[in-house]
Amino acid sequence: MKRSLTALLIAFALMIAGCSENNTEEPDMKAHIHEKGGFKIEYPKDWEVQTRRDGEIYSLFSSIDGKAQFKVNALPIAQGAGLDQFVALQKRYLGEKWPGIRFIAQENTVFGGMNGKVLSAEFQKDGEQDLTKGEIYLGVADSTAYRIFCFGPKANSGQNTPVFKKMLDSFSITGIPRFKDASKTTGGQATG
């Protein structure tokens, strides 16, 4: 009886240890430097990366299944324009891009060494039945506006949150972006 109880306790302890090891496992990260965009970020090494430099400066990181996405934009902003103007422009732009987007919350935050706002939102992508949920981080520094999208299926939001947090925590501004032609910027130009 005593041996059975001891064996049972050991088996239970091993099971708990195995679970906690799996829950604390973090993805291997890889650095991405966007020289023209003036930013650096780390992302899971098994994710895909797309980068664009003409007009709109961005880097898009996608999970292997394409469901989780993390996109960093650097946008020119009008001289003297501030964070509040950028937030208002982005809400209007996102409302046009995704009619029916629902902004759940807006809070102050700090990312990449700058003060910013984070908008929590839900929307439905064209042709998809699943609801998409995520955050949009908005900040302004040195005549540049930064927009970071962290999105994935609402059903997977708890699974994506630790990866998105790690990516956001690694974001840093490394220089002033070199915009090819600020007048051609698309995707929610910060200047309106």
Helix percent band: 25-40%
Total of DSSP H or I helical runs spanning 4+ residues: 3
Secondary-structure element series: HEEEEEHEEEEHE
The unreliable regions are 5-24, 184-188
CATH class: Alpha Beta
**Oligomeric nature of the chains:** single chain
Across the major sheet, the strand order is: 3-4-5-9-8-7-6
Query: Based on helices, strands and strand pairing, what is the structural class?
Result: alpha+beta
Any idea of the CATH topology?
Protein Transport Mog1p, Chain A
Distance N terminus to C terminus?
Answer: 76 Å
CATH architecture verdict: 3-Layer(aba) Sandwich
Please provide a written account of the structure.
With 192 residues, the chain is α+β, with helices and mostly antiparallel strands. The chain contains 3 helices and 10 strands. It has helices at residues 2-24, 83-97, 157-170; strands at 29-34, 39-44, 48-52, 57-62, 69-76, 102-111, 114-123, 132-141, 144-153, 172-173. A hairpin with an 8-residue loop joins β7 and β8 (132-141).
Brief sketch in words of this structure:
This protein has 192 residues and is α+β, with helices and mostly antiparallel strands.
List the topology elements.
Blueprint: H1 2-24, E1 29-34, E2 39-44, E3 48-52, E4 57-62, E5 69-76, H2 83-97, E6 102-111, E7 114-123, E8 132-141, E9 144-153, H3 157-170, E10 172-173
Antiparallel strand pairs: 1-2, 2-10, 3-4, 4-5, 5-9, 6-7, 7-8, 8-9
